[in-house]
Amino acid sequence: MTTRQTAGEAQRAIEAVFRIESARLIAGLTRIVGDVGLAEELAQDAMVAALERWPETGVPENPGAWLMATAKNRAIDLLRRRERLARKVAALGRDAQIEPSWAEADFARVVDSAEIEDDLLRLVFIACHPVLSTQARVTLTLRLVGGLRTDEIARAFLVSEPTVQQRIVRAKKRLAEARVPFEVPGREELTERLSSVLEVVYLVFNEGYAATAGDDWMRPALCEEALRLGRMVAGLLPREPEAHGLVALMEIQASRSAARTGPHGEPVLLLEQNRSRWDRLLIRRGLAALARAEELGGTIGPYALQAAIAACHARAGTAAQTDWPRIALLYEALARVAPSPVVELNRAVAVGMAFGAEEGLAAVDELAAEPALAGYHLLPSVRGDLLARLGRAAEARQEFLRAASLTRNARERALLEDRAARLRPPGS
């Protein structure tokens, strides 16, 4: 490897391998050393070793095994140096007394075993542990499970790299202080903990699907990462209906991505989208995941209900064919399972579409004094739409302008201002 180009290609290959293998690597190391922060450091050490050696020797046939063997050997050295965890050191030492070919041969069996999948699931539950703040859970999940670099997370959420680094450090410290065990919670705790995991995945997806701030309407990379994480969780917990419900919801929503922006990146609203641009493969996958969630039985959860709502849109050949009465009923069910002002606002939209703008406006006005919606830009946006449909153009225009002043997304602000401008009286 003598040329700069070849060295650059090797580094890109190593980074790609590490992105694929890092979650498994950190998960396996956490089981060994019992500390997620230390596990990540060991994984990073293994990557540095790869960067030093692979450009000369080439990428091994089983790069995951090589990285794990290297990290595990470093873990042995570290534990011995610190004279801690004598029992684990002895166990690891026995594992280390093997032929050099182990990293490339025998270890492949371990990498492919169910134990690695169990480790991944444990890592997901640690990264999304409720003892952490929501921001910390999102950041740590993207870092440990998603394998994103600090700069990638910072760019995705429009924060500085030092901010992301601080969140990661504090999250690891909090987990260590709380002595969070590296385990999948028992059945009695699983529902509560699983809801935290699914919440984090959907927060990541939503930030990609409709960015809260910045110049871009969407951040597709975040949607893709959330889908990957969601599919992983559903695969690790195949009997959990809500895991499949969330995957169904994200698959169907992601199917609209190509139609959600115009030629210059401007937002295109759902009812105005060219449905021929919707991804039929993602819709089929979403509908299949929804069917799986429903087949598993039990109470239909909030993600499966939202997926059922998304399915109503996906099954409609045109906007006019949308089954709005069914959507309104599904929102009623969602409000019972997961009550919130935002759900009620969405229900009001469905009511307005199903039974007329007057009824929809009445439902929206009931939410006007809701403190949780005081600075929520979609409240005046929905109200403006209903007023415009009722022919109350001047009032609608004011609502769109108010919504524009509240949003932090530049693309959405431009859309709302344009809708207000179109309602300006002639000659004004």
UniProtKB/TrEMBL annotation:
Pfam families in UniProt: DUF6596, Sigma70_r2, Sigma70_r4_2
UniProt keyword annotations, A-Z: Sigma factor, Transcription, Transcription regulation
Stored SUPFAM superfamilies: Sigma2 domain of RNA polymerase sigma factors (SSF88946), Sigma3 and sigma4 domains of RNA polymerase sigma factors (SSF88659)
Domain RNA polymerase sigma factor 70 region 4 type: 125-175
Superkingdom of origin organism: Bacteria
Domain RNA polymerase sigma-70 region: 24-84
DUF6596 domain residues: 193-293
Family: Belongs to the sigma-70 factor family. ECF subfamily.
UniProt protein name: RNA polymerase sigma factor
Protein species of origin: Streptomyces sirii
Lineage: Bacteria, Bacillati, Actinomycetota, Actinomycetes, Kitasatosporales
